[in-house]
Write a structure and sequence with these properties.
about 30% strand; Rossmann fold; 12 strands; alpha/beta
């Protein structure tokens, strides 16, 4: 489990997030919500030691992340970045990069690595893309391959920064269903999302960031009724009950 204890982080000495106390328990989907520039992506990177903390602690399975090597961190937590380069390799070869933390030098893939990569491609609904060059894929297809690469890492915690980018609504719903399945398998799933309806319908907990601080943390019901979403987004967040559950939508503030 990843735990942030009084974490402050920023760039060039300028703080972006201050005094964040937050953990990501196994078996739950946590959505990070907030307006553009509030530090959601920064929080993900800091939680995995990709950018240094200015103060506070980051614990990974109870150990200070600074005591762990990048390889050890990568064996415990996977990270799907918001944007990635597009190398001239096949989709399956791209997904195999998720197995790097388990390989010694020189990297030689084992049968179990190929099996895990193929399984991850199927989970991400990208099995038919396996042998296609990355450069030939659409933005949505590439996003599914990148998701498969994170899944191939086979970690107990999975951090995804806007995983539904470029995906049509059907595949967005599939990503959220996959997040739920991963949580049911005992994994901690953390998602940065901008679609409030998608996030609140699919998560167990929502963490709301704004102004460099954690404004709220709770279940979708708790966050909705607190009014914090109205304050940080400057809209009126409403919901209506449907046969599939609550559906959230936004209206201008009166």
């Amino acid at each position: 489990m990843v735990e942030l204890r009084d974490l402050s982080v920023g760039y060039d000495g300028v703080p972006v997030l201050q005094n964040i106390i937050l953990s990501f328990p196994p078996g739950q989907v946590t959505a990070l919500l907030g307006p553009n520039g509030c530090g959601k992506s920064t929080l993900l990177k800091a939680a995995l030691g990709l950018i240094p903390a200015q103060s506070g602690e980051i614990l990974l399975d109870g150990r200070d992340i600074r005591s762990l090597s990048p390889r050890e961190v990568a064996q415990k937590a996977a990270y799907l970045a918001q944007s990635r380069s597009v190398p001239n390799i096949t989709a399956r070869r791209m997904v195999l990069h998720g197995r790097f933390p388990y390989l010694s030098f020189p990297r030689r893939y084992r049968p179990e690595d190929f099996a895990m990569a193929d399984r991850a491609l199927q989970w991400a609904d990208a099995g038919d893309l396996s042998h296609r060059p990355m450069e030939e894929l659409s933005g949505g297809q590439r996003q599914k391959v990148y998701l498969a690469m994170a899944l191939a890492q086979d970690t107990q915690s999975i951090f995804m920064d806007e995983p539904t980018t470029f995906l049509d609504i059907g595949h967005q719903l599939e990503v959220m269903a996959l997040a739920r399945r991963l949580a049911e398998m005992g994994r901690a799933v953390v998602l940065v999302l901008h679609d409030l309806d998608l996030a609140l319908r699919g998560c167990d907990r929502a963490a709301v960031l704004s102004g460099g601080t954690l404004q709220a943390l709770g279940s979708p019901d708790e966050v909705f009724f607190s009014g914090v979403l109205d304050r940080v987004f400057g809209v009126s967040v409403r919901r209506m009950e449907t046969p599939e559950g609550w559906q959230y939508y936004c209206a201008p503030l009166k």
